[in-house]
Amino acid sequence: MTSLVPVLAAVAPTLPLLGMLLALLVRTPRQADALVVATAFPTAAAGLLLAAIALAHGDEPALRGQWYLIDGASGVLLAVIAIVGLCSALLSPTYLRTSGRSWTTAARSRSLYYAALFLFWAALLAVPIVGNLAVVWLVVEATTAASALLVAFSGRRDALEAGWKYLLLTTLGLSVAFLGIIVLAIGQANAGRHGLHALDWYALQAAAHSMPADPTLIAFVLLLSGLATKVGWAPVHNWLPDAHSEAPAPISALLSAALLPSVLLIAWRIKEILQPSVGAGTTHAVFIAFGLMSMVVAVPFLWRSLPWKRLLAYSSLEHMGIIGLGIGFGTPLAIAGVVLHVAGHALAKALGFYSTLPLLRIQPKAATRAPTAVLSDSPATATAMGVSLVALSGLPPSPLFLSELLIVLGGLTAGEVVVSAVAVIALALGFLGLLHALMEGVIGDESRRRRRRRSREEGPIIALTAILGTGMLACGFAGLLLLPGSGFVETLARGTL
Amino acid sequence: MNGVLVTAMLALALAVIVVRRRTVAIVLLAAQSLALGILAVSLAGGAVVAIVLLSKAIVLPALLYLLIRRTREARPVAAPAGPMVRLAAAGAVALCAVVLTPPLGLGAAHTEHIAVALVLVGITIVIARRPILFQLLGLIVAENGLSLLAVSVPGGLSYVIDLGALFDLALIVTVAAAFAQRIHSDLGTGDTELLRGLRD
User: Fold this and answer.
1) Interface contact B175, partner A, CB < 8 A
2) Which residues form the domain of A295?
3) Hey, which end of chain B has fewer CB within 10 Å, N or C?
4) What does the pLDDT read at residue A448?
5) Is residue A127 in some structural domain?
6) How confident is the model at residue A447, as a pLDDT?
7) Which tens digit of pLDDT belongs to each residue from A344-357?
8) How many Cβ atoms are within 10 Å of B155's Cβ, its own excluded?
9) Which residue range is the domain that position B33 belongs to?
């Protein structure tokens, strides 16, 4: 099966690029919707097949070629991006049918939406595949352009503000990260390694022991602080709640479930590669600092009565913090937790954002204020929101319960007792905040029970709740049975490459 | 010669934060990109560098000029701070960059300092200027700082990275221009101060 890897690695991002070009050519909404189905399924199939091969080889050295590098972490991310991308693409016609006004004319809006969606999806699929630091930076920069347009798609003033803020802040952050890449390129050039391949992940890893400590430390700090903007880590997370709340629901799901962890994967690889030169203490400290700060900053917002999508956005801040913390701990237990958390969070968060589609039909004011007693209006929507909230809060049998437990235990085995204790307190407080949202916003007052006519958006959300909910349970069981102590996790804990 | 051009790039960036008129700021940016292009040709040479030079010094400013033709302001957007305050702030940021930037391994401290200063001054322009076009110019100034460091890498960066970065910049500028037009048609001005509705 590994002989298929070069082909699949090329096909998976190329298919949505073709979809993008075709989306600009189609003339009718019906053709555009048909194109989405025709492109999304093969793209997801290629991504999932590649992910399956990567996961099957997770306990062996990474699969690599001239331009690609695929390890176990790539496999997890590819699976997440393929599944969430497929769900987002298939839900997009439903969103577009009910979205009302958009950035551009009705005739062009659908084509532009699909073109930007496919470009975004293609870039996301390329991130875990590309084997070169500079090229992966270029790909991440491309995700910014495509997703900024999607964030502002509705054309409302708040959406324009969110999109502009996202474009500006993440581009500046990526500029800082690129400064770090150039510093690394200078170091490689001084050692006689020139050209594009000097910045391959493997070339950097091979050179890490001989890199001068001070410039490499500068490069590491620049790269991490720049990428932190795109990951949405505190204190450079200002764009995150705005962009997630204003974007169309299928795009919010891709942003939170796929984009943020994809950029985190790059940060993780940089940590592993530069650690021999920079020192394990420094790299761990930077990840732990960003992770813990994000978790603590998120808590007050999780306690507030926020609009549904803003609540989910602050939950993303918390969960990116948890993942960062796990990578910072770096022990096999913590890494097992990280792998499980990336997958579980993606499914739970995507379902949460998808439930916005029927939610805004039954409670239009939920766009700007906290929803109230959704169960009384639509049991199907309330179930989707409830499953998402229960999973995100880490209540058993959520896979996030197990992943958070593994990360905290990993912290304790790493000797980070104080950090682990603060993390547990932050998790407990975040749990209470989400529980409050579940009780007030989703379940609400028994006496208000009234059933409205079932809306058209409820059909897809019932199916998605069943599929993604089952996926979360499967993740939890697979994580419990397969991950701790596995060769897959041991390989990742030794280094992602 | 190269040292003068490098210093001129910083002076032009500082001028961008001061000037009031958008057309003047675009001319300053074009001059900065031209200085960068001349440096790139003298350091690395080659057809790719020439393409980057032409694109940055001619095509991008032309696109920005078209943008301001389509988004006419009845009067310039009032700045929250006067030009001398802005200049002092940007000058202080540049000075900090010069004093505090440690050796990056290039062996040309002046270039390293100015490149980092340009990135920071670009960020300062984004923070200090309210008009959407000036914020976009801040992004490009910061990117010119990165390009200055990139062309100074011994042997240069790969053409793939040069062209990829140019493509990404063009994509970002195009998307930003679309935002600028949409915001202008919605608000009647490019003043980003009016985009402050999202708060928790």
Assistant:
1) yes
2) 281-497
3) N
4) 60
5) no
6) 62
7) 999 999 999 999 99
8) 14
9) 2-71+92-194
Chain B residues closer than 8 Å to A194 by CB: 154-155
What's the complex ipTM? Answer: 0.95
Domain total of chain B: 1
What pLDDT sits at residue A260?
97
Q: Does residue A38 belong to the interface with chain B, where contact is any CB pair within 8 Å?
A: no
Using a CB-CB cut-off of 8 Å, the residues of chain A touching B161 are 134-135, 138, 196, 199
pLDDT, one tens digit per residue, over A285-334 is 999 999 999 999 999 999 999 999 999 999 999 999 999 999 999 999 99
- The distance of B89 to chain A (nearest Cα, Å) reads 19
Q: Which of A140, A88, A136 is nearest to A114 (CA)?
A: A88
Query: How many Cβ atoms from other residues are within 10 Å of residue B85's Cβ?
Result: 12
Let me know if residue A390 belongs to a domain.
yes
* A401: Cβ contacts below 8 Å, ≥ 6 apart: A394, A395, A476
Task: Report the pLDDT value the prediction gives residue B2, as an integer from 0 to 100.
Answer: 83
CB B165 to CB A190 under 8 A? no
| The two three-digit tokens of residue A434, written as one number | 């989400």
Query: Do the domain assignments include residue B20?
Result: yes
- Model confidence over B43-74: pLDDT tens digits? 766 677 767 777 788 999 999 999 999 988 87
Distance CA A131, CA A134 (A): 9
In tens, the pLDDT along A431-453 reads 999 999 999 899 887 666 566 65
Confidence band for A107, pLDDT divided at 50, 70 and 90:
low
In chain A, whose CA is at the least distance from the CA of B132?
Answer: A164
Per the CB < 8 A criterion, the answer to whether B150 and B162 are in contact is yes
Determine contact, residues A455/A383, Cβ cutoff 8 Å. no
Phi/psi of residue A68, each to 5°?
A: -120, 160
CB contact under 8 A, B196 and A167: no
Any chain B CB within 8 A of the CB of A138? yes
State the total domains in chain A. Answer: 1
CA distance A433 to A301: 8
Q: By the CB < 8 Å criterion, does A213 face chain B?
A: no
User: CA A249 to CA A236: how far, in whole Å?
Assistant: 23
Give the contacts of A38 (CB within 8 A, at least 6 positions apart): none
Q: Which two tokens stand for residue A53?
A: 């091969």
pTM flag (> 0.90): yes
A78 lies in some domain: no
Residue among A419, A465, A426 nearest A442 (CA): A465
Q: Looking at residue B1, what is its pLDDT?
A: 61
* Residue A340 lies inside a defined structural domain of this protein: yes
Residue B21 in any domain: the answer is yes
| Residue range B161-187: mean pLDDT, rounded | 92
- Name A107's Cβ contacts closer than 8 Å, sequence gap at least 6: none
The shortest CB-CB distance from B154 to any of A152, A190, A245 is to: A190
Q: What is the pLDDT of residue A43?
A: 98
Residue B82 forms part of a structural domain: no
Per CB-CB distance under 8 Å, the chain A contacts of B132 are 164
